[in-house]
Amino acid sequence: MTTALYDVPGPRTKRRHLFYGLSATAVILALIAWIIYLLFDTGQFVAEKWSPFTYKGIQELLLRGLGNTLKAFAYAAVLSLALGAVLATGRLSEHRVIRWVSTLLVEFFRAMPVLVMIFFIYVALQVEPLPALVAGLTLYNGSVLAEVFRSGVNSVERGQREAAYSLGMRKTQVMTYVLVPQGVRAMLPAIISQLVVALKDTSLGFLITYDEFLHAGKLIASNLNYGLPFIPVVMVISPIYIGMCMLLSWFATWVSKRQKRNPKVEAVKVAAPEPGPLLPGGHQPPTV
What we know:
10 helices, mainly alpha, about 0% strand, flat
């Protein structure tokens, strides 16, 4: 039995695929076991290196750093979405000058490394650490989101735009009521992915002495006389970063499923066909 894309695997192929899967799993488990062995062998799980986390001052330092990270991310996320919407609107404009200027800004800030922008704003413009970090993240992520928004709007079928114009709608109405609501469903995964990037890039704030989560971990690892507990700090901070990113991805999945259940985007049910009226003479119409 075959399909249009590939042959259905037979018994030998299934056994071979099972062998590949088991071999890959064994290699991954062996690698994890080797890493854990190295951690134990180098004394990374001794109580002396983990005792700083039992102190109230250390816990408050980590919580304060986590709060600063979330604050920087919240500012950067909101401003990036707003900047992306403005630049995307400019790139979709019918006025050539506005379109060219928007394109130049998008391409420039996308090509510029985010760390360079943060340092330039912090050092050259003498801006405080939090505004410098937020500004750098906003310029970079906003320019990327502008392309996401533009691509999402252009992904809507051309007939939708033409049908709206034929009803007498203006361009603003076409964008607001027709193109953007349909394009959001295509944009959402890319938007959330870029926001995850912005969340991780908040860790660059420690390079400009912003008291964020990674900076707090660096202070703990470098300023305490406990044998430099760098690995335990990483093992505490990394799962929290991963958890925040997974939570953001889960939120995106929840929003996507909720949109699919929205009655405004559900397909309209069509009644089943029924026999038509009798023709003159009492005969049913011929079926095609």
